[in-house]
Specification:
Shape: elongated
Helix content: over 70%
Distance between the termini: 57 Å
Number of helices: 23
Low-confidence stretches: 650-658
Number of strands: 0
Strand content: under 5%
Structural class: mainly alpha
Mean pLDDT: 83
């Protein structure tokens, strides 16, 4: 839900408005043909954080130039074959949009802007192909001027540091993690700490941290600070399955009769250490009990192993948070947690990306054919705005609601522009009065841009309103021309909405199912893997998938998976067992290999729909392997695998022989 504007939101709105008016004044002074493009471009790159504005500015300039160059290259040779020109535009948009959707960094702005700049430049020039070069140059000048003004004003007037926001976000993340950890470490009997309300929020927040970290490098920060932020993000990600594993093991011990007193003392010591700020010199000593037979002893061994991992990861996270808080980072950071390496691989659903971009291309091509066959004079504007609507929201699982909202707000833009153009601007006899006239609507729009949930509505509103008014060097208003051109844009958005409703009737539920099945496929393919060098990449990919999955699970209430953490833990334990097998004697290797083979068989069965729950034979093999292995790490992995695959109450009924 939208929160009330903060002081930072108001400051951003005023800065964006100042930059927009500066860009408009310079464009009018230079005599550029469409100065309102410079004004609107400010809001395309404006961001409350200075580093984010710089990154967007740099890459959007490149995207604009690439898109304009493509227009110059395509229009002259294809102008006499309109369907072929529309096909070329649609293919260009699809290819660039595909690359943009794959990137989760500021680099995506290059490809996104290059994608929709082409229809903005190419289509209006179809009637005058000889003027495409001048039009492309003018559009590039106007857009780049707006981007430059946004970057300069953002850097000079009360710059907001990405580093400060990142520090606040990481502290809040650690506070949420502390709530989960302390509840788990003092869990009352029957408490479902494995389903703690913080766990999904923690995973989802990591995706937001990714954007801040990617923008940190543009905030005049040192390489050490950027490196520390990336290390912190990696360890936060690894902490999640460790907390989930420990929580489920604690539940299993509660179901089996309670947490043994020595382990409870260790858990209380860790809880007190975390609540006291996790200082390095007060870290609790955690002795390991000898390996003993029986399920209860195995649970204790697994809990101690996960407790050691948790303390090491928590220590790393806290030292990195303190490091990020230093004004000048000194010395080299040495990690405490060394069991896993921090990977940076990402999970991409290429099937969904391809489907999204192909449907956008077909929508643009279909709109173009309608324009061509109807001979609509203002049809180019309809196709261009329809293409922008499709591109802006293509990354969403369900773009139709946002396009519908965009359509509704464009109606509002039309009404605002009509009042401004025909009732307000006629009395603006100088630029100062013009600024006053724009202040009220654009300061409100700036507040929308400052709200993360409404930024994708506020930013197009700013651009469309400026375009609808069409302010130029001298006042000129023709109602018929105004109405026809703006109705064309709204019609283009309506076509994009109708197209999306027809070709993308499914959304979050389908994306959730595909992510879950991708996890099953990873486990089936890699549970028996013999390539330890690929483990870092696999771990990073599965943890990234988890961060993508859990917000969708909350939104879709999917019946496919109730948690999202279980599959990740199964895969992590399979990788741990693979690594430990090299040092095991033959009989232990055989028992562990049988478990991994059964894991592969089970998840293949899940993929083809022949199994909904793990078979009893798998639990038996896990139990048999637990009896044989003498490695604490391997035993902890087997216990974690069992409690992840089977409800915590079930393992307590399994008896093991001495």
């Amino acid at each position: 839900m939208m929160s009330w504007p903060s002081a930072r939101d108001w400051i951003f709105s005023f800065k964006a408005f100042i930059a927009a008016m500066l860009a408009l004044w310079i464009a009018m002074y230079l005599g550029l043909p469409r100065p309102y493009w410079a004004m609107g471009s400010v809001y395309i790159v404006a961001h409350p954080l200075t580093g984010a504005t710089r990154s967007k500015a740099l890459y959007r300039v490149l995207g604009t130039l690439i898109g304009a160059a493509a227009g110059i290259a395509m229009v002259p040779p294809l102008v006499n074959s309109p369907p072929l020109l529309m096909a070329a535009v649609a293919i260009w948009v699809a290819c660039l949009l595909y690359v943009a959707l794959m990137h989760r960094t500021p680099r995506s702005y290059v490809f996104m802007l290059a994608a929709y700049t082409l229809p903005l430049v190419a289509l209006p020039s179809v009637d005058n192909p000889t003027g495409i070069f001048d039009l492309a140059v003018a559009r590039s000048e106007e857009i780049c001027l707006g981007i430059l003004c946004a970057a300069v004003v953002g850097a000079v007037l009360m710059p907001a540091s990405v580093a400060n926001v990142l520090r606040d976000k990481t502290r809040q993340w650690m506070a949420d993690a502390t709530l989960w950890a302390t509840d788990m470490l003092s869990a009352a009997p029957g408490a479902r700490v494995s389903l703690h309300q913080s766990r999904h929020r923690l995973a989802a927040d990591i995706l937001a941290l990714d954007q801040l970290i990617s923008q940190l490098g543009y905030d005049a920060e040192s390489a050490d600070r950027v490196r520390a932020a990336r290390e912190l993000r990696g360890r936060m990600t690894m902490l999640l399955p460790v907390l989930s594993s420990l929580a489920t093991i604690v539940e299993s011990m509660q179901a089996a009769g309670g947490v043994p007193a020595p382990l409870a003392v260790q858990m209380q010591a860790v809880k007190a250490w975390i609540q006291a700020g996790a200082a390095s010199d007060t870290r609790p000593t955690l002795p390991s009990t000898p390996l003993e037979p029986g399920w209860d002893a195995a649970l204790v061994t697994a809990a101690e192993d996960r407790l050691h991992q948790m303390v090491a990861l928590w220590h790393d996270c806290m030292t990195l948070c303190r490091r990020l808080g230093e004004k000048h980072i000194q010395g080299e950071w040495v990690p405490e947690f060394l069991r896993w390496e921090v990977g940076r691989a990402r999970h991409y659903d290429h099937g969904m990306l391809l489907f999204s971009t192909v449907t956008v291309a077909l929508a643009i091509f279909a709109m173009g054919l309608v324009w061509i066959h109807t001979g609509w004079a203002d049809g180019a504007g309809a196709v261009a705005l329809g293409a922008i609507s499709c591109c802006f929201f293509a990354a969403l699982d369900e773009p139709a609601p946002m396009i519908r909202s965009f359509f509704n707000w464009n109606i509002v833009c039309l009404l605002i522009s009509m009042v401004m153009l025909f009732a307000v601007l006629p009395v603006a006899h100088d630029f100062e009065m013009l600024v006053l006239m724009f202040a009220v609507p654009y300061l409100i729009i700036g507040l929308l841009v400052a709200q993360p949930r409404l930024a994708m509505i506020g930013m197009p509103l700013a651009v469309v309103t400026a375009n609808d008014i069409g302010i130029q060097g001298a006042y000129s208003a023709n109602f018929q021309s105004f109405f026809n051109s703006n109705i064309a844009g709204i019609a283009g958005i309506a076509f994009a909405l109708a197209w999306t409703l027809v070709v993308r009737p499914f959304g979050t539920r389908a994306a959730t199912r595909r992510l879950v099945r991708a996890g099953w496929s990873d486990i089936a393919e890699n549970a028996l893997g013999q390539h330890p060098d690929s483990h870092t990449r696999l771990r990073a990919r599965m943890l990234d998938r988890l961060a993508q999955l859990v917000p969708r699970l909350a939104a879709s209430e999917s019946e496919v998976s109730s948690d999202g953490f279980s599959e990740v833990r199964v895969e992590l334990t399979a990788l741990a067992l693979q690594r430990e097998m090299a040092s095991m004697p033959g009989d232990e290797q055989h028992a562990v290999r049988r478990v991994l083979r059964s894991i592969t068989t089970y998840y293949k069965a899940r993929l083809d729909g022949s199994a909904d729950a793990p078979p009893q034979a798998l639990q038996t093999r896990i139990t048999n392997a637990q009896q044989k292995v003498r490695s604490r790490v391997a035993l902890a992995a087997l216990v974690d695998m069992q409690v992840a695959l089977f409800p915590p109450a079930l393992p307590a009924t399994v008896s093991r022989k001495a």
